[in-house]
Design the sequence.
């Protein structure tokens, strides 16, 4: 079970930020780093992570200052522009055990392209 109360400096995304392991970068600014998911679930599947150590979205909302929160959230728009996303996207962040979070560094999944997975079936 992952620990999302105490930040683990050796999680895979911390290593990506430190360039200890490679990633396919699509965007970077002072707040955010975005790269391709290694196991894409849609034609476009990007992971967006803050360049500071937050375990989860909860941890981020609790500990990040307002300037960083705003800068990080706004980076999502810039990433969309960079990726030339025109027909919409899905943004997901998994938190903790019941959210299905596997990597204990906050990340948003940005999914786009022609994929038809519904979150709630009709
Ligand atoms: P989550 O289940 O929300 O914690 O998502 C973790 C995501 O990280 C999964 O979609 C994995 O495919 C992805 N992932 C794990 N290791 C890497 C890696 N080295 N490079 C890119 N994506 C990764």
Sequence:
């Amino acid at each position: 079970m992952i620990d999302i109360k105490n930040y683990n400096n050796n999680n895979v995304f911390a290593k990506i930020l430190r360039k200890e392991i490679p990633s396919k970068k699509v965007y970077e600014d002072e707040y955010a780093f975005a790269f391709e998911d290694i196991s894409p679930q849609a034609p476009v599947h990007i992971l967006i992570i803050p360049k500071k150590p937050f375990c989860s979205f909860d941890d981020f909302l609790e500990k990040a200052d307002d300037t960083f929160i705003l800068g990080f959230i706004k980076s999502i728009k810039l990433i969309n522009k960079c990726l030339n996303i025109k027909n919409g996207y899905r943004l997901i962040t998994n938190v903790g055990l019941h959210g299905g979070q596997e990597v204990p560094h906050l990340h948003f999944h940005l999914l786009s392209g022609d994929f038809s997975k519904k979150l709630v079936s009709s």
